[in-house]
Design goal:
The chain is an alpha+beta fold. It is 28% helix and 37% strand. It has one domain: Aminopeptidase, CATH 3.40.630. It has helices at residues 12-18, 26-37, 80-91, 106-114; strands at residues 2-6, 41-46, 49-60, 63-71, 96-102, 118-123, 132-138. The model has no long low-confidence stretch (mean pLDDT 93). InterPro entries: Acyl_CoA_acyltransferase, GNAT_dom.
Length: 142
């Protein structure tokens, strides 16, 4: 059973620890704190452990946008990422929900497709030689 709840400042160190980018990019730590402070960050808990977090924003042309889904290395393949995406589909307050991931991130592409997202387009020039793939889903509020 996966429980999703809003992240709190008390979760900050835990989220930094499970984030694979935060250890090498100080900017990510600040971003995690900002996501928590603005109330758009959610954690997925299984048993007693927070094993993943996700961010749902509304900055993408006024639509819901999954900015981040990060599952800790020791918690992968346990349904936490899917639980976050499904929660965001239900929680999203706009009719359209978008998400994106790099072309190289096969796991996230599979997760989004399994959750009913479909390809919406590509954005080049964000990361060198690794285009961003944009996905689309209707939210539960369409």
């Amino acid at each position: 059973m996966v429980e999703i709840r809003a992240a709190t400042v008390a979760d900050y160190e835990l989220l930094v620890a499970l984030d694979t980018v935060a250890s090498c990019e100080p900017g990510r730590r600040a971003q995690i704190r900002q996501w928590i402070d603005t109330g758009c960050c959610y954690v997925a808990r299984t048993g007693e452990s927070v094993g993943a977090y996700g961010v749902l924003g509304y900055h993408f042309f006024g639509n819901g946008f999954i900015e981040m889904v990060m599952v800790g290395e020791g918690f992968r393949r346990q349904g936490l990422g899917m639980a976050l995406v499904r929660d965001f589909q239900a929680r999203c307050t706009t009719p359209k929900l978008f998400a994106s991931t790099n072309l190289s991130n096969q796991r996230m592409q599979e997760l989004l497709k399994s959750a009913g997202f479909r390809l919406s387009g590509f954005i080049d020039n964000l990361d060198d030689n690794d285009p961003e793939i944009v996905f689309f889903s209707h939210s539960m509020h369409h």
